[in-house]
Design brief:
Mean pLDDT: 83
Number of strands: 11
Distance between the termini: 43 Å
Largest sheet: 6 strands, parallel
Number of helices: 8
Strand content: 5-15%
Low-confidence stretches: 1-25, 31-70
Structural class: alpha/beta
Helix content: 25-40%
Radius of gyration: 17 Å
Length: 278
């Protein structure tokens, strides 16, 4: 990662943090689907390079449901002031999450490794990648993985207006529904940069905000061994691990998960996903 790119991303993150302002306690996802409060966790770090927000006149804003009957309105959720950062429940449970995909080069290898160890994970998908890789999204559904909304073009939401944020979210949910079979119930802001509009619009679209506890920083391509060390050293009950299956060269991530996943399982950890809300 070049120094100027890194500094640019740091500035983007700081802009997002400033826009968020004062916030309350972060939520915790319980094994049974309920929630409780938890202490504030460290602010997330930036991810891969932002892409330009979609144009309001673009084809991608059109519904992808064809001639299907009108959808029921999503269930109204409580509007949070901070994203969920961890999971809770009995035993040594963790959750694995992957951002920015799907990607035809790297995502299949990650899915293969998860299948080998009978593990389910969460994938936060970008709409522009979904429409290009529908079969991978269908595979995620077939293998029991949970998918979330990660916007269409991975923009810094704190630089967009409400209409633009809604377009990024809603069009991605449409694309996911067309390939996955149902609308996403979870949303993750690119770069972990949240603001009031993101929380409000996500809740209106039936999505809870999900962040993370441990960042592998694999987007910086620090080396396979470094990624392995960060996951193994950060492992603890309730941890949500952030990795990436797209947005750049993810070959280190692919190799790393083949090492750290069996190690965590052998250490007594169980990988889980949030229950589906009815």
């Amino acid at each position: 990662m070049q120094k100027d790119q890194y500094l640019t991303r740091r500035r983007m993150l700081l802009a997002g943090a400033a826009a968020l302002g004062a916030a309350g306690s972060a939520g915790v996802v319980l094994a049974g689907g309920a929630e409780e409060s938890a202490p504030r966790a460290p602010a997330p770090v930036p991810g891969p390079q932002a892409r330009q927000a979609l144009k309001s006149s673009g084809f991608r804003l059109q519904p992808l449901t064809g001639d299907a009957p009108p959808r029921a309105a999503p269930r109204r959720l409580k509007v949070r002031t901070e994203p969920i950062l961890r999971i809770s429940g009995r035993g040594r449970h963790m959750m694995l999450t992957f951002d920015d995909g799907p990607n035809p080069e790297y995502t299949p290898h990650i899915l293969d490794t998860l299948a080998k160890y009978n593990v389910r994970a969460m994938f936060f998908l970008c709409g522009e990648c979904v429409v290009e890789n529908k079969k991978l999204v269908a595979r995620m559904a077939d293998e029991g993985h949970v998918v979330g909304n990660h916007t269409w073009t991975h923009p810094l939401l704190t630089t967009l207006n409400r209409k633009e944020i809604h377009a990024e979210m809603a069009s991605t949910s449409d694309a996911i529904e067309a390939s996955y079979g149902e609308r996403p119930q979870w949303f993750r802001a690119p770069y972990g940069a949240w603001n009031r509009a993101a929380f409000q619009l996500g809740a209106a679209l039936g999505m809870e905000p999900m962040a993370w506890t441990v960042d592998t920083t694999d987007w910086m391509t620090p080396g396979t061994s470094t990624i392995v060390d960060r996951v193994e050293q950060g492992a603890a009950p309730g941890v949500v691990v952030l990795s990436h299956d797209a947005g750049g060269d993810r070959s280190q991530t692919v190799r790393a998960i083949r090492e750290w996943l069996p190690h965590l399982i052998d250490s007594g950890y169980h990988m889980t996903v949030p229950p589906r809300r009815l």
